[in-house]
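ARCHIVE CARD
CATEGORY: sequence design from structure
SOURCE FIELD: tokenized fold
FIELD CONTENT:
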């Protein structure tokens, strides 16, 4: 018997979100659509330059946990915050969503991570992330019993940036597989893929990771190709199950020779793409851990992603479960 459907592991980050013009990105050397890692000095400078902003708990895997919980999944989360105001906000938000979150804080320095996200008129988000306390996450933060009792343990590729997190993830993978569970990862960002391409491929080909989430750009980067069909063929060979999102073109679900296209959810207005991939993973993993068909898993993923991109912020403002019931998916 399992205690949790999904355990997610990631960088515990509070998002600070503001709108801007494309020129602002150019003037400040911000790579559009990417996650840019920054130091303390850069974080202070960009914060000072920001217009009116919204603060919201984020972090890729944290968003996925919150989304899955909103659908009704039993979820848990590992991620490090400091003993400071942003850390309190993050912990409160996770626990208020019904997510099991007990990772211990470690003093006030380094401070809780924050990501300054600039959203342009086309809804694209450009993230500037100061990792802060995230770099302190390590093997001592692994709750072995939680991993053993989770159907799927999911982690973000961004965790390959903080050095000690890799060891923690590999430990979690061993615990999960020793207990007959599965391990999943998201490739996170095409720039992240470029940094760790060989390691990510090894995780997939060695069987350390069973389920992979990627978007079109990440899949192309992983195989260093401009041929998307080739990338789909290769990723289907390298892992047990893959879900590749394609923005308005929906998603492809691949398992061996099986290939399922799921159309995107029809939306009203695109407001902010922050969290789209995270919430796709929420819906997909909710369906997967409930024994739903791969097509239904993809539809749930597209629904969750479609809802979150119609609002500011990476976590659903309303109940995803109610939306899924209304759509006939639950």
């Amino acid at each position: 018997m399992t205690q949790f459907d999904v355990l997610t592991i990631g960088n515990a980050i509070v998002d600070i979100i503001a709108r801007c013009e494309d020129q602002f990105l150019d003037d400040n050397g911000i790579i559009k659509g990417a996650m840019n890692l920054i130091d303390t000095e850069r974080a202070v400078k960009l914060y000072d330059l920001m217009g009116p902003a919204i603060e919201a708990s984020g972090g890729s895997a944290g968003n996925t946990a919150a989304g899955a919980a909103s659908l009704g999944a039993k979820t848990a989360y590992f991620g490090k915050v400091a003993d400071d105001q942003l850390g309190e906000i993050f912990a409160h938000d996770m626990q208020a969503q019904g997510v099991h979150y007990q990772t211990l804080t470690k003093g006030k320095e380094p401070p809780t991570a924050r990501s300054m996200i600039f959203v342009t008129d086309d809804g694209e988000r450009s993230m500037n992330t100061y990792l802060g306390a995230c770099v302190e996450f390590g093997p001592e933060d692994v709750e072995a019993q939680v991993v053993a009792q989770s159907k799927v343990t999911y982690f973000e590729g961004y965790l390959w940036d903080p050095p000690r997190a890799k060891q923690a993830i590999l430990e979690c993978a061993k615990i999960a597989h020793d207990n007959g569970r599965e391990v999943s990862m998201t490739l996170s960002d095409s720039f992240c893929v470029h940094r760790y391409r060989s390691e990510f491929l090894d995780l997939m080909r060695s069987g350390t990771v069973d389920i992979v989430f990627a978007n079109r750009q990440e899949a192309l980067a992983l195989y260093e190709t401009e041929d998307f069909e080739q990338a789909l063929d290769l990723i289907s060979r390298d892992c047990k199950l893959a879900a590749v999102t394609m923005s308005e073109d929906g998603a492809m679900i691949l398992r061996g020779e099986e290939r399922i296209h799921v159309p995107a959810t029809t939306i009203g207005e695109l407001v902010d793409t922050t969290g789209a991939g995270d919430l796709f993973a929420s819906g997909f993993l909710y369906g997967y851990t409930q024994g739903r068909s791969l097509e239904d898993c993809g539809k749930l993923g597209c629904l969750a992603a479609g809802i979150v991109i119609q609002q500011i912020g990476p976590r659903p403002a309303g109940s995803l479960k109610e939306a899924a019931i209304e759509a006939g998916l639950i």
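CARD ANNOTATION: The two ends are 22 Å apart (CA to CA). Residues 274 and 314 are 5 Å apart (CA to CA).
SHELF: design records, drawer C
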